[in-house]
Every structure is written in C-alpha cells, then in structure tokens.
Amino acid sequence: MKDEAEYAYFAGCTASFVENDVAVGAVRMLDDAGIEFTGLFDKEACCGIPMLVAGKWDVFEKIMRMNVSNMKKKGVKTVITSCPACWLMWHTVYPQWAEKLGIEYGLETKHYSEVLVERLDVLKPKFKQPLDKVVAWHDSCHLGRAGGKVYEPPRELLKAIPGIKFRELEYNRERAHCCGSVVSLIAEPPVAYRLGNMRLQEAADVNADVIVALCPCCIFQFRVAAQENNLDIQAQDLGAW
C-alpha cells in the first residue's frame, strides 16, 4: 500500500478488528488486480454510522471531518470499502453532511467488488486453483436494496473462479433477506440467530457448501448463526477467495 494514491482502501471496524480475513483478502485482491492504493492506517476512524443512528451527531461530525481530511491529505480521489455500511456513509451520508456543513467533498466511493470486476482481465488468469464447491450468494442490505444496488459485480467475480458451482438463493437482489446482524445481534441475540438461520436454510436448500457475502458484518453473523443452529455451512467473504 502506497503512502499516497488516487485510490484508498477503507477497511472499517468489523474488517479491522473482528473478521480480519475480510480486510486481508480485499487488500490482496486489489494488489493482484494491479491497483495502486493507499489507506488511512492508524488514522482510520470508524465510519461513524453507529454514532449517527444513535443521535451522537457532534461525535459523528468530528469523525467525518477527520476521515475526509485524512483522505484528502493522501491525494485520494476514490474510496474503496469492504463494508456496505461504510460504503453507505462515504457514498451517500458524508456528501450530504459535507454540503450541509460547507465542506468541499469531491470523493467517489466504490465497493471493492466494483473495482475488481473492472480488472477481471488481470485477475482471471490468476484464478488457477479450482475450488470445486457449491456456492450461494447473499446480497447485503446496504449495498443492495438499501441504496447501492451492487448486484452483478460480485456475481461476475465468483463465476470467474474455476470449479465453482454458483447458486442463487430463493430471495436475491432487491428481494434478499437481511442476515439479521448488527443491531439484532447486539440487542436480541436469539432473534438474530433465528434470522440468520432463515438465510442459511436458503443456502442449505440449494445444497450450498459455502454462503458468500461482501459484508464483514454479514460474515460474522453467518458464522455465529451456523454455530448456534448446528448448520454445516461455511461463511466466506468474497475478497478472501
């Protein structure tokens, strides 16, 4: 990762501190795709979505100003995220608040799947090891029906991996069910386990060995829900393949 670049990878809290394989996988694939990028490293703060939804608007504003300022100091033009919630903040919420606060913004935001699929001609020759697994795809809320509508790039990446037998879940794209993570998992774990079980059962119904997602919070939820419901289904982040 460069000290300065036009692209920057923003890992987010969950990929940094909970499901580290998500951040590691994303960085490796961006590197394999030949993309020069930087990051905020120890100056990366939370995207601020927990503070925003909790009504801690003064804390959120401080975080937003710091993140945006640090990106600009590194010459960044496009922020690449792992986490759909971080994507939502950088893509939609930060620009809205920047306009309200009179801050010049000017940053583009993409999920790493969108960036990688543009370099599929570089990546595909590097997919040499067949996986020989039945794989189901989960559309995460924030990057799907809640605003992002990023549906096809991750599917294109998965289908490019040799040996994969791709399966759609019954409820997909704009009809996709929530994994049940984040607020549910924190406030009502038994409810979260039931919601996770519903989604995992969809994967079981298509005989999937693995359920793949592009959200670190979804990955964490599926791993916990599979354990709590005694389901033998692996949960894997797209970038960690």
Question: How is this structure best summarized?
Answer:
This protein has 241 residues and is of the alpha/beta class. It has helices spanning 13-17, 20-32, 49-53, 57-73, 84-101, 112-117, 120-123, 152-159, 183-187, 189-205, 216-228; strands at residues 7-10, 37-39, 78-81, 108-111, 133-137, 164-168, 210-213, 234-237.
Give a written overview of the molecule:
The chain has 241 residues and is an alpha/beta fold. The chain contains 11 helices and 8 strands. The strands form 2 sheets. It has a 4-stranded parallel beta sheet. Helix 5 links the parallel strand 3 and strand 4 (108-111). The two termini are 20 Å apart.
- On the 0 to 100 scale, the average pLDDT is 91
Strand content: 5-15%
Give the CA-based shape: globular
Question: How many strand elements?
Answer: 8
Helix content: 40-55%
Low-confidence stretches: none
Counting helices, strands and paired strands, the structural category is alpha/beta
CA-to-CA gap between the ends? 20 Å
Instruction: Give the number of helices.
Output: 11
**Radius of gyration over alpha carbons?**
18 Å
Biggest sheet, open or closed, and with what strands and sense?
A: 4 strands, parallel
Q: Please give the order of strands in the largest beta sheet.
A: 2-1-3-4
Order of helices and strands: EHHEHHEHEHHEHEHHEHE
